[in-house]
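Tokens in:
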């Protein structure tokens, strides 16, 4: 969000209130464009967008019924007491009560990272990894182990410090860099979807006694634990039963330099409700069309994803959440 720690002009960006180290920006709940949606405005809307839209399930007579939104997304900026740092997180809950796991994580992980803010600045990979593992342990122990035995959440965390970012991914929520090269908008994946049939992932699961089914058509590859569950990712927070069969919480952590002069323009962090029918490149092209407002760009991406779900699946739609961050 910012490449310097200088004090911004009054009224142009939020200040860190005394006694606080960050400001959290919650997602804007979107509805059908026919109903209209409140648009964020102001200086921050130009550089930050955070939007979500709940999923739907088919009902009788061709009707579609709203599902509980199990996605959670949060943008923290300023973060860790500095305008030079930011944190963007997306958690996609799954299974019955999966929204409780994603809700736990969206609060616990930013807070835990900030508690060790100095260590986070000094060694982001180690602190990001340890924090995800510790939160996973808390989730699995909560309520005597029943809280997340048969449910869980993805976890994708983007930590920005100056002109460098680290991405910690457990699951299939994805972070992408949008950049311009020779006048064309392109995409650079900042995370790798952790799928059960991916090299290294499949071998670990099989060695632990799990089974991996091959994805067919629009159906994803899945982990089967003693013939049950059918988890569509190889890494997650929670999912206690699957942890016995090779599913792990350990995030894959990748480091990237942010170079605006090279053409880097924005970062997208989104749940698989976006990526199911929209490629990284197309998502970046959609966002780039709204060059004046990250908030409008984010809303456009979420609504485009919802339309793809309707076209492909009719009255079924997964939850959709996206964060868009314009680079200075």
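Residues out:
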């Amino acid at each position: 969000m910012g490449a310097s720690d200088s004090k911004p002009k009054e009224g142009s960006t939020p200040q860190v209130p005394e006694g606080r180290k960050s400001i959290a920006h919650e997602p804007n709940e979107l509805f059908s464009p026919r109903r209209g949606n409140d648009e964020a405005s102001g200086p921050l809307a130009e550089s930050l967008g955070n939007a979500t839209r709940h999923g739907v399930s088919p009902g009788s007579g061709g009707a579609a019924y709203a599902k509980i939104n199990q996605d959670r997304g949060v943008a923290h900026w300023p973060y860790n007491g500095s305008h030079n740092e930011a944190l963007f997180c997306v958690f996609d809950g799954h299974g019955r009560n999966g929204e409780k796991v994603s809700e736990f994580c969206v609060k616990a992980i930013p807070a835990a990272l900030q508690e060790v803010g100095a260590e986070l600045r000094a060694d982001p990979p180690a602190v990001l990894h340890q924090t995800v593992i510790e939160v996973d342990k808390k989730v699995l122990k909560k309520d005597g182990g029943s809280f997340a035995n048969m449910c869980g959440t993805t976890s994708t965390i983007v930590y920005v410090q100056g002109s460098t970012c680290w991405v910690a991914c457990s699951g299939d929520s994805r972070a992408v860099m949008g950049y311009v090269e020779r006048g064309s908008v392109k995409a650079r994946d900042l995370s790798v979807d952790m799928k059960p049939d991916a090299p290294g992932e499949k071998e670990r699961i099989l060695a632990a006694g799990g089974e991996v089914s091959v994805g067919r058509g629009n159906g994803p590859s899945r982990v089967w634990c003693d013939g049950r569950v059918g988890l569509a990712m190889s890494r997650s927070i929670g999912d206690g039963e699957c942890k016995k069969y090779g599913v792990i919480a350990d995030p894959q952590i990748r480091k990237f330099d942010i170079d605006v002069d090279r053409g880097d323009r924005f970062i997208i962090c989104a749940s698989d409700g976006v990526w199911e029918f929209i490629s990284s490149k197309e998502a970046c092209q959609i966002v780039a069309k709204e060059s004046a407002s990250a908030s409008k760009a984010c809303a456009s991406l979420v609504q485009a994803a919802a339309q793809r779900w309707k076209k492909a699946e009719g009255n079924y739609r997964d939850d959709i959440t996206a964060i868009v961050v314009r680079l200075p």
